[in-house]
Each structure stands twice: as structure tokens, then as C-alpha cells.
Amino acid sequence: MNKTVLITGSTSGIGLGIAQQFAKEGYNIMFHGLEANGQAIANDIAKTHHIKVGFSNANLLQPEAIEHLVTKTIDTFGSLHVLVNNAGIQFVSPIEDFPNHKYENIIAINMNAAFYASKAAWKQMKIQNFGRIINISSVHGLRASEFKSAYVTAKHGVIGMTKVLALEGAEFNITCNAICPGYVKTPLVEGQIKDQAKAHSMTEDEVVEKVMLKKQAVKQFVSIEAIADMAILLAKDSSTTITGTSFALDGGWSAQ
Q1: Coil, helix or strand for 143?
Q2: φ and ψ at 78, to 5 degrees?
Q3: Which stretches within the chain are classed as H helix?
Q4: Nearest to 152 by CA among 223, 95, 100, 218
Q5: ∠ CA 171-176-181 to the nearest 5 degrees?
Q6: What does the pLDDT average to over 127-136?
Q7: Which of 161, 244, 169, 234 is nearest to 7 (CA)?
Q8: In what helix (H) or strand (E) does residue 146 lie, and over which residues does it extend?
Q9: What percent of the chain is predicted at pLDDT more than 70?
Q10: Are 151 and 103 in contact (CB under 8 A)?
């Protein structure tokens, strides 16, 4: 029987890259995202890799919708072995100007959704005596940057939650780990580069060098493939003793 993975935010960016890697490994996948063509994206990957897929555009601001997403996954595939809490949003602002609703939404999607999804998946994982929860945090779960109060708060919170779930899951063969990437060149980041170039009167190359990758020792964007490969490792049967850990894929940023 193929194992099942649910990946939030998996119809674009990092989540899509992780999904493609799990598809290559033969996992059945519940896709989730807000792209209008999300079902088509899922179907294309299913056809290429001969796996079963599902798709949901559940609103992660709503705990009931998250619970339904997990239930739908279990009902569709009869199992849920791996949960990847990947979906996230960002907003940058000095704290005195930070809109309250933006703060609340970032906390809700980047942190609270990981809690509600993990909680909903827990019973099934205990029944299976197998579960792998992989939280996509950030280097900003390990280090802070100015003007990102909501994002840094949420990503630090995810790492704390990761440790608690690792302790609670140990006797049931449920592991929980966090992956903490530096900057990844997704469409979202490409948009940020353009915005920063205008805001700072820089070229896009200058933004990459002097703003985005300034804190990294390795002056390269983190590849989606590296993140996906780490997720596959953490999902393996043999990774039972790898739990409660945060893996920095950040070009040496957090080493400083």
C-alpha cells in the first residue's frame, strides 16, 4: 500500500516542490492550495507518477476547515502517514504601522494552522503507530529580522510546537521536525525582489546581494530540491529517532 501525505500550500512554490518529490517516491498526495487550477496541477502529477491524488482549497484561517481537510484526506486514502505543514504568508512593516488583521492572519496561517492540522491527524497516526509531521518553519524561526514581527513570532512558535509534539508522539512512532530554510527563489520572493528594488532604488541584483542574501555565508538561494529532499528523509521509516529537531537550510545564516 502506498503511503499518504497531506501537504498544505502544495500547488505552488516550496509546497509544490515537496509534493513532486513525494510523488516520485510513490506517495499518494492530498494537495492543498488557493490556485484556481489546483486540481489540474494535482491531476498532472498523478498522471506522471501513477499515484492517487486529492485536492482541497480549505481556508486555513478556519479551524473547522483544517479539521475537514485532514478528515477528507483520511476518508479519501484510508490513511495519513505524513503531514507537511507548509502553507505560509508574509507581510513586512514596522511594528507601529503593522495592521492588526495582517498580524492575526500570519499567526493563524503560519502557526495556528499547523497546530490544528497536527491535532486532527494525531488520532489516525496513533492508530497506525506511525506518523511523520514536518513543519516548514524558516531561518526566522531561529533568528530575527526587523519589520517581520508577525512572521518571526509565528515561525519561532512553530519550532516550540515541534518540540512538544515530538515528546508527545515518541511512544506512538510519531515524529515531528521543522525545516528552516533561508531565502528560496519562489514567485513570492521574486515579487519581493522587485518591490525592494523600487523601494530602495536598487537594481534587482543589488537587492539579492545586499538585502536578501546579506546574512547568508553561502550567497545562493536555497533550492526547493534541498528542502524537498530533507522532507523525504524525515518521512522515512528509518527516521524514528530523528524528532524534535530544527534543520537549518540557510546557507550558514544561523551559524553566525
Answers
A1: coil
A2: 80, 10
A3: 13-24, 38-49, 63-77, 100-107, 113-128, 149-169, 187-200, 204-207, 224-235
A4: 95
A5: 165
A6: 98
A7: 234
A8: none
A9: 100
A10: no
Specify the pTM: 0.96
Dist CA 232 CA 142 (whole Å): 22
pLDDT one-digit tens code per residue, 49-69: 999 999 999 999 999 999 999
Residue 156: all three cell numbers together: 519561532
Helix, strand, or coil here: 175?
strand
Side by side, the strands of the sheet bearing 53-56 are 53-56, 28-32, 4-7, 82-85, 131-136, 174-181, 246-249
Residue with cell 502557526: 111
* Distance in angstroms (rounded) separating the CA atoms of residues 134 and 178: 6
Under 8 Å CB-to-CB from 220, ≥6 apart: which residues?
Answer: 213, 251
Question: How is residue 177 written as a grid cell?
Answer: 521536525
Report how far residue 155's alpha carbon sits from residue 139's, in angstroms, rounded to the nearest whole number. Answer: 8
Give strand pairing partners of 75.
Answer: none
**Structure-block grid coordinates of residue 154:** 509565528
Query: Mind giving me the DSSP string for 186-255?
Result: -HHHHHHHHHHHHHHT--HHHHIIIIISTT-SS-SPBPHHHHHHHHHHHHSGGGTT--S-EEEESTTGGG
Q: Which residues does 109 contact at the CB level (< 8 Å), separation at least 6?
A: 60, 61, 87, 88, 89
Contact 176, 243 (CB under 8 A): yes
Residues annotated as catalytic are: 151
